C-alpha cells in the first residue's frame, strides 16, 4: 500500500514501524460487587508499585536532564502520598468504586484544589497530578509505557503527531525516519527532523490506522511516499536510494565549513538555528557566521517551572561562550500557538496562532518578560548577543518592547549588575503588517529576521499546523517572494541587517531566490548548511537576481517550481 504525505526532511529509509500514540486513559465508572474490594485494592497497589518503578528506571537512564529528574522525584512523592492512598482506599471500600475510578476521582479532586490555589506555585503543581494520574491509570491496567528515549533498535517512528515534549529525549540514533498523521513543513516535528537529519514525511492521512508496529515501511523523504508492507523489490530499491543518499551527504559535508559565496564571489552569511543551550557544544563553527536564531522556548518547555533569571542567564552564557565571539541572535519567548507549557495556563482561544502568542503573551505578563530580558542582558557580557522579538505587528509593538528593555536595563543598574553595552535590538518579521511597514521598522531597529514559517501562514491565512489546509500553506508562492523582496529593499536602503530564519532559508532552491532578492544572511538547521552553500556556489548573483525576478512574476507556486526545471 502506498500512502502520500508531505516530504519535509530529505532522505530515505526502510525499516520496522514503531507506532507511537500518547495513551489517553479513562476509567470505567462501574461499582464493585460485594467481595471485590480486596482485589480492586490490590490492583491499585500493584499499579502504584509499577508506576514508582517506572519512574525510578527513567531517572536512572543516562542522559536524563536534572530538571526531568526533579519532576520524576516529585511524581514519585505524589504516588507515595499517604493522604491520597487513604482517600483512594475509602473510595474503593466504602463507596465501592473500581480501582481506576477511585484513582481518577481522588487525583482529579487534588488537581482541582491545586488549580484553585492562590499561590502560583501550587497552581503549577496541578499538571503534576494530571501527569501522575495518567501513569498510574496506565500501570493499573498493565499497559507498558511507550518511551521514545530508548527505542533499542532502528525503527520508523509512526505517530499522530509529535509534541515537543515527546521529543525532548528522543532516541535519535534509532529513528530511521518519522511519519506523522498531522503536521506540515514548518511544524515542530519537521524542524526537529531536519535538525537531526532524519527523513520525514508528515501529514499522511489515516496513517495510524494503516500501519501497525512491526510492519515494514519504506519512506521517501523526497516525494512524500510512504510504502506500507512493500514487496522486496521496493525495499531493495529504497535501501539503495538510502545508501546513495548517505554517501552524497558525506561528500557534501566538505561544504559545511567553507565560506559561503556565489559563483561570482558575493558572500552570503550562513547562521544556525538552534533550540538548546548545548547545541553548539563540540560544533566546529568554521565557515558559520553565528547563531541566527536561538529559540529560547526550550528552557521553558524542558522545565517544570518558569525558569529563573539565574537559570536562564547560565543557559544563555553557555551558548555565547560556545559561539566563541560570533553573534548569537536570542529570540525572546515565543510560546502559544502550538507551543504550550504544562505548568503555565495559556488563555483558551479559538485561534491561538492569531491570539495571545509570543510577544503579546510576554507583554501581558511583564514579570516573565522582564526576567528573560534581565537574564539575556546579564549574559550579554559573555559574548556578542543580539536580542530579537517575535510576532511584532506594529510600530507600537516595537516601541513598547524597547521600553520594556529600558526598564530591564534600569533594574540591573539599580541592582548594580553589569550588562553588555552593545546589545543589538531587532525584530522578527513574520506578520504581514510589519513587513509592509518595513521602511519605518528599519529606522527603529538594528536588524530584523524574516520568520517565513509564520509569515506564510499569516499572509496566506493557512494554519501551519492544519493538514486540511496544507495545500493553501505555500512558501513557494510569488506573493511570499514579493513581500520578502519589499522588506529586503527597505532594509538595504536603511543599511540595516536583514536575515531569513524560517525554514525556507535552509531549502537550497529557495535560498537561491532569497539571495536573488537581496538577502545576504540566511539562518538554518545545521543539517542544511552544506547543501545550501554548495547550491549557492553554482550561480552568479546576476543569475540569482533574474531568478528572483522571474519568481516574483510567476502566477503560482507551481510556476516557480518550473523555473528550476528549465
Ligand atoms: C518562523 O516563524 O519562521 C520562525 C523561525 O519561528 P518559529 O518557527 O519558531 O515560529
Ligand atoms: Mg515564528
Brief write-up:
By secondary structure, the chain is an alpha/beta fold. About 45% of the residues lie in helices and about 15% in strands. Helix 1 (about 35-60) packs across helix 5, helix 4 packs antiparallel against helix 5 and helix 18 packs across helix 21 (about 540-555).
Q: Structural class, from secondary structure content?
A: alpha/beta
Q: Could you list the spans in which at least 5 consecutive residues all have pLDDT below 50?
A: none
C-alpha geometry: globular
Q: What is the CA-based Rg, rounded?
A: 25 Å
Instruction: Give the total of beta strands.
Output: 16
Question: What is the terminal separation in angstroms?
Answer: 33 Å
Strand content: 5-15%
| SS summary, helix count | 22
How many domain modules? Answer: 4
Mean pLDDT: 91
Fourth CATH level, the homologous superfamily of the largest domain:
Phosphoenolpyruvate-binding domains
Structure commentary:
The chain starts with a strand and ends with a helix. The model has no long low-confidence stretch (mean pLDDT 91). An eight-stranded mixed beta sheet has the order 1-8-7-3-4-5-6-2. Helix 1 packs across helix 5, helix 2 crosses helix 5 and helix 18 crosses helix 21. It is globular. It is of the alpha/beta class and 566 residues long. It folds into four domains: 125 residues, Glucose Oxidase, domain 1; 104 residues, Orthogonal Bundle (Enzyme I, Chain A, domain 2), CATH 1.10.274.10; 159 residues, TIM Barrel, CATH 3.20.20; 137 residues, Phosphoenolpyruvate-binding domains (TIM Barrel), CATH 3.20.20. It is 46% helix and 14% strand. The structure holds phosphoenolpyruvate and magnesium ion (MG). Magnesium ion binds next to helix 17.
